[in-house]
Amino acid sequence: MSYEPLKIPKYINKLVRNKHKANNSPLRLAVLRDSLLYVLLMVFIVVIVALHSVSQGSFYKIFGYSAMTVVGSSMQEVLPQHSLIIVKEVDSQTIKIGDDISYLTADNLIITHQVSAIIENYDGNNQRGFQTRGTNNKNADLEIVVADAIIGRVIYHNLAIGKILVFIKDKFFYLLGCGLLFVGVWQLQSIFHKRKENRV
What we know:
Blueprint: H1 10-55, E1 65-69, E2 84-88, E3 100-104, E4 110-122, E5 127-133, E6 145-146, E7 150-158, H2 159-170, H3 172-199
Antiparallel strand pairs: 1-2, 2-7, 3-4, 3-7, 4-5, 5-6
Helix pairs in contact: 1-2, 1-3
């Protein structure tokens, strides 16, 4: 005696597949949601750390551009204190009197002042020397800036953004702690949720 295999109607197969997909949908959404959240939090932490570094007076060059904040008030009329400034690396031959430049002093401090005079072939080494002055200062700076010490020319400044950076600097550990605490709470919530699903 022979038997024909039991044939399951197509609509039942379709219902089973749809139910299986429906059961997997919440899991996929949860994984996608968690992954997106972690990426956003990592970006948040990286941005906070980077902005904190900028507000601390240090600088990093990215494609020849640097960002930093103005610490003092010697350039208050042109670059108010706490302003964010964007500095572009340029050829020293293109710098002219009246340009605002950022440079490193002999003590490795970052200064942003205006060029008040240019000395060609300074110290007989075929390099230009730049005399600078803060626009709020009566006298020029004593130190002559050589081309190798120049970080770049100021091409943009914004006081509002700079104030935000100062706030981040003052509240750095608070903001970072909030971000890490949020990650921890979210992780614990995910663990409890998974345990609850396993019990069911």
